[in-house]
Amino acid sequence: MVTGSPSFQDIVSALVEVGDFEGAIVTADMSELNPKDYKFITDLMGKENIHEMNYIPDYYQMRARCKVVIQTGDYGVHAQAILIAGYPSADIPMNWLQNGIKNN
Known about the structure:
Elements: H1 8-18, E1 21-27, H2 30-33, H3 35-45, E2 50-53, H4 55-64, E3 82-85, H5 94-102
Helix pairs in contact: 1-3
């Protein structure tokens, strides 16, 4: 692995191109601290499909529930997202996902 490669954008764009993702969860700090990647993911998935949550402890707790974690060579600040994979059906309600972290 080379520092910075593959990038956050390389991995997310490849996954979204071949997968069935209905949204993404990012940290509430991403838009301010990493505007380049924030714009990328909102442009890719649509602003209405981007959900923000506090980095600590909520994002950490949600990240611990992920089924797959892909580590990139990217070292950008808040260059991370939890992709929400779904089925070709109604969107998964975010309050259902978030309530799960509070009950663990």
